[in-house]
Amino acid sequence: MDKGLIHIYTGDGKGKTTAAIGISLRAKSSGLNVLFVQFFKEKDSGSEISLLGKIGIGTIIFEKVKSPYFNPDIAKDTLRKEVRAALARLTEIFTENLFDLIVLDEFICLISEDVLSERQAEDFVGRKPDKLELVLTGYGATKGMIRLADYVTNMQNIKHPFEKKMVARKGIEF
User: How many Å apart are CA 134 and CA 6, to the nearest integer?
Assistant: First the structure.
């Protein structure tokens, strides 16, 4: 690819991570090197990550960067410190130029959960190599991040079983 573009999958609906996994599979099947990175997820929160690794897609889960929504006792300062460390590691990965596509799953949530400022996020994304395709997921994409992106898809929740108090099912919702 001569120019890597920026994709955002955002919104309150289901399917953001699923869409990111889909583009990862498409890229890998076309011979591209792919890295799938997750924030705000537990190590064994979903079976798709282990499967991605088995088919040769690199995976990183920043386990210490936990969602304040599900972990309200975690101090924001602690999260911010962990995010700085994660972004420093990702900046190193950018400079290595080993990947054609990198997915940062739940990256947008770092902003919407006030762990990372919009400006910090924009500065970080601005460091991506020119040829790197970058996919960012998470609810609450800001206007600045939307302006920065080349593709923006808003997953809108119309109806969800959670509204009927149904619990999430392994393999379907997680």
Answer: 5
Q: Give the closest residue to 125 by CA, choosing from 110, 114, 139.
A: 110
Reported as a single tens digit per residue, the pLDDT across 39-84 is: 987 665 556 888 899 999 999 888 777 776 666 777 888 899 999 9
Q: Can you list the domains of the chain with their CATH numbers?
A: 6-139 (3.40.50.300)
Burial of residue 6, with CB atoms counted within 10 A of its CB: 0-12 exposed, 13-18 middle, 19 or more buried: middle
In this prediction the pTM is 0.91
Q: Which helix (H) or strand (E) holds 151?
A: strand 151-154
Rounded to 5 degrees, what angle do the CA atoms 50, 53, 59 make?
A: 90
